[in-house]
Records
---
Amino acid sequence: MDCRKDKKQNNNSKFDYLKKLRENEENNKSDVKPADLKEVLDFYKNKKVLITGGAGFIGSNLAIRLCELGADVLVVDSLIEEYGGNIFNLEPVKDKIRLNIADVRTYPTMLYLVKGQDIIFNLAGQVSHIDSMIDPWTDLEINSKSQLTILEACKHNNKDVKIVYAGTRQQYGKPNYLPVDEDHIVHPTDVNGINKMAGEWYHILYNNVYGIRAASLRLVNTYGPRQLLKHNRQGFIGWFIKQILENSEIKLFGGGGQVRDFNFVDDVVDAFLIAGASEQSNGNFYNLGGSEPVSLKDLVKMMIEIAGSGSFTEIPFPEERKMIDIGDFYSDYSKIKHELGWQPEVSLCKGLEKTFDYYKKYKEYYF
Ligand SMILES: NC(=O)c1ccc[n+]([C@@H]2O[C@H](COP(=O)([O-])OP(=O)(O)OC[C@H]3O[C@@H](n4cnc5c(N)ncnc54)[C@H](O)[C@@H]3O)[C@@H](O)[C@H]2O)c1
């Protein structure tokens, strides 16, 4: 796999941003105080941590890391069929964590579970954009109303907790300009984006009004081990991985020219850990983002090359997807970089290699 070749292919005029980013990075170097990772990591030793959605993709990777750091981890997950929760995700820490199969929509349960926790990583969610359009009520219940349920539970039983919420770039909708920074207007193109936006703002409100410390990270496309692969309603990366491993043909909507940025899950876990240990993050929301924007077509070519299987063809955009598609998107993550010292460390090439290694080994648990 020649990653340099892929970088070169991406180096066209669409990526002037990259040049600017690099120039800015050079100019601003002295402003950037990288997070003291050792301090952050020590912070979690013996801390009581609750992860909602902890059997899912990002939540389980976070749970595994927190166990390594000596935290006392409680995972809460409803394991609803068709969602991303997967018991196998927690296999490496099954003897170290407590798993409570419960629904964050249930107030009495949450009232009990938040008690005594030092930090809550709040990742439970209905994450399919297309499902949010088919069944807007469930999306509302889980992504919006449940956030109030969790925050009210904390207000009554644990005002001292720190919460980090998983927001999404989908809150911005179709960008007015690129890269998208936190000053960009939020005008979501689907029900999921609206409910995630409300979910985030309940956290900020409870921080500001009740002093329940909360921060939100607005995630871009995240990929890596422990992601749902079995259907195509939960993001395209997992679906591409499955098709490539089955050696079948990927159908790229609209030619695959859309540009996105990607984070390997370990980088996202780092961002949650850093935000959770920081007081500066209270009441704030931050974009995450990848180090380089890549077109979906280039992404697929890279994936096929790394895995050594699969192929692709281009097809017109299906109408129901086109209506909610956000087109090109890549984020400006300089706020979190400057305030909290986070930046992505894992290159797309390295991250994809690790991802395919994982699924080749544990395919049977994800197909
Ligand atoms: N993966 C991404 O690219 C991405 C991008 C933007 C935002 N996010 C956000 O990050 C969070 C985690 O996403 P993920 O990719 O790990 O998805 P995931 O589907 O793998 O994880 C979500 C988990 O939440 C659980 N869950 C859903 N409804 C629940 C409920 N009512 N009660 C308890 N548990 C429930 C699911 O069972 C699942 O395990 C989500 O909030 C999502 O919106 C993810």
---
Amino acid sequence: MGVHETIDHENRERAKFREMKQGTAEDWAIIGGEYRAFAKGLPDRVLDHLKLLDGDFGGFPVDRLEHSLQTATRAHRDGRDEQYVVMALLHDIGDTLGSYNHPEVAASIIKPFVSEEVHWICQNHGAFQGYYYFHFLGMDQNARDKFMGHPHYEACREFCEKYDQSAFDPDYDSEPLEFFEPMVRRVMEKPLASMYAKAIAEE
Ligand SMILES: [Fe+2]
Ligand SMILES: [Fe+2]
């Protein structure tokens, strides 16, 4: 059960304004307190959403949750750090709500918590992954070439080659989601950068 489900929303104190321009310090103390608690529940919400990929095969040899676990397991066993492994775990989480731009959904979720390079890999893995199948669907296999010369080109190519395109093996012994949960919680513990950083700072 996620943290958000344990909150009694009906009986919580609420701000009094009808329009934001009527807002008072009192109103925003209430909302700020709620926000801090809600933000802490992010790892739970992300893990809950990732579970929606369970049983979703889309014609692939493994379902999307197994693909995610396998990508993360391969990255972890290859010695990647936690930011990278969490990115690998979540890289396709956008398949449900971003059916036409899934890499950007995952990239946005992890952006406050990872390096610029790890974010870039996530955001652009779609074009690099296309190298392995776009030509079967009438698309340009070399779509990734538009990023040639970019400082993160090689890192993204490597992610797809070593961990993503290789993670469709039904016989691979992937770690279970519980194995990665503590990593997700550690990586999402505190944003490295956020326009709301001051609002989540404890008084
Ligand atoms: Fe993907
Ligand atoms: Fe993938």
---
Amino acid sequence: MNNSTENNNVSIYSYISASILLINIIFFTGLIIFLMSHAVSNYLGISSIKESLEKQSASIIQKNEHSDTTTPVSSNHNASGNPESELLTKGKALYATCLACHGQNAEGNKILNSPILSGQQDWYLKAQLVKFRDGLRGVDKNDIQGAMMRPMALVLKDENDIDAVVAYITTLTANKPEPTIQGDIKKGEQSYAICITCHGADGKGNKSLNSPSITGLNDWYMATQLKNFKNGIRGSDPKDVTGAQMRAMALTLQDDEAINNVISYINQLGK
Ligand code: HEC
Ligand code: HEC
């Protein structure tokens, strides 16, 4: 009795292990077939994509060669392939970073202490972006507003980026900012006498003296800058030659009242 149960058990075990072996064989064969077919189809797929890409780029190159020979050297009015418009397209994309603070039309934003840029001379905008980038402006520990601007100038990675964003800014137009500062215009006129040498009687600036236009600026921004120059927050780096020139001039304005007076005078220039 015992013996026959044992025999039965042995045959059940061998039956089970035989079936497990069979299942394994079926499973692994399936797996191998699956993997192989996958690899083959992958290979075919990639090579056919590669082939069609090669065909496409060949036809693009052909088209370009064709248009190069048929269209004469593009005029300035031609939108595509024109370095000038390419610079503007790049500049517009770069300006997306600036927009949040300086505004859609570079009109500035008082709440963010960000000045108007529209209407300012391109050579001056470039010079200031370089100064922010190179740490001649916006690095003094008391220059909270300059510190907001400095990392933005660092987004512009080379001269071409600076040229591009400035080229775009100079296409923007904004209204002359409303005055926010009231002072004694008569007294301001007297203080302004010394400013004429560089910024001109009309305040439009003088490129050969690196002096920007100061009409059409936000008066609150000018007040901050005149104080910054006076306090050495701007224009005190030995490498900042033009800043140092302006710093000496800001020091001729005795106090905040004198600053407000000269700004009131500048406000009504070019009206
Ligand atoms: C986070 C806000 C912010 C962003 C974004 C920003 N700026 Fe400014 N920008 C300022 C502030 C604030 C000042 C004024 C700094 C000061 O008071 O010295 C300034 C000043 C400037 C000046 C100097 C203007 C002058 O009259 O001297 C230029 C030029 C300028 N920004 C260009 C740009 C450009 C170009 C970009 C985009 C790449 C940009 N800014 C992005 C906040 C910003
Ligand atoms: C010797 C020439 C010279 C004289 C005189 C002069 N400035 Fe300037 N001014 C400059 C230069 C150069 C700059 C640009 C500084 C820089 O590159 O950072 C400047 C910048 C400024 C700015 C900052 C503009 C901006 O967008 O950030 C203001 C405001 C200003 N001057 C006002 C005045 C006033 C007001 C006077 C008279 C009290 C005056 N300046 C006299 C040369 C001069």
---
Amino acid sequence: MAMRGVTVLFFQVLILCFQAKAWNPVRRSYEVKQEATTLGNVHLITECMHVTSEEGEFSFIKLPPTRSTSSWKGTGGGRGLGESWSGLIEMESDTMLAGDGSGGEPLVANGGGGGGGGPAATVCGVYFVADPDQIIEITMKQVNVECRTGGLMAFVDGWELNGQYFPGEQDHEQRLERRVQEFCSEQAPPQWSTKAVTPAKVWVFRSSQNCALVQYRIPVRGSFVISARFLHNSKPCHIMAEGLAPYYMLRNYGQPKNCTLTALFPAVVSVIALEVGPVDKNVHYCERVRSDDKLEVGGSTGLDPHQMIKASTICGRSGGRMDLDQSILCGTTSVRLVSSGQYNNQAMITIRMAEEADLRLAAVMCAM
Ligand SMILES: *[C@@H]1O[C@H](CO)[C@@H](O)[C@H](O)[C@H]1NC(C)=O
């Protein structure tokens, strides 16, 4: 239930993108909105899905309604916090709160009956996106979000929507459990909980790529203040494309890893230059050839590039400039550079928002 709210917002953002025909104006409208709600240097978070490409302080506050209808009686069990968000949400909406099977004490909310899963339990998020060669550092300056009343916060190394993640679960160097750090006032994130909890609760998180997410669920009351800083990343692998850069580079730096470039809009992807695999091979399609080093272009409805419908798979070396345009008419457009570690692979890519004229040339179309 709760996540559905985010879905609707996600599509609203997509529709906004369409209307604006470019991400740039969309970003500006966010900035304008933020200016309007800025107190000194602090951005006030007023929307459930708050997308920003700005550094600075962000604060959220929720006061209890005048007539409290909450019947939450949560008991924040230690390891139960390790539950994934979706797990928690299912638990809430089911209100059948038996053991969760994960072995830990579940975050139990009982006695509520029909109350669970209502608007009060909505999961919201502050979605940060920086330049491709930056990572995001988030400092939790204040956390007044109590597990006791069903509240929870999480730092996500990447973005999450409807249970899908960018970078994809299979593509990220860290396992998902390590990428999602849950916490609340009474409970430090796992990486801090072994040591003495910092008295002032100053927790600092860093993302591995240019996007990060701070999720929060505050059913009754609570507040938080976070501070975001963008730091330089000398070897970017996964990139959330904002559509502002003239081109994007995907590189593996000789490593056995997969790097992805994702844009949250239907796009025309153009591969400008390619160096993937053995030196003596020209650029060719390699869907059918068994090849450990390749560039995949495609699209999907969700966030995870690993689950995309492929438009093409190409290998080889272009020498000079080439133009291989492909229209990907999906909510999410992705390019994946798959590398065995045997070669220094790289690809230069441009992405622009698809326009009406590009519809005819669609290489991939998703239900939207
Ligand atoms: C990269 O992706 C390929 C194919 O999608 C997969 O077989 C491989 O295990 C991945 N490698 C890494 C290091 O994640």
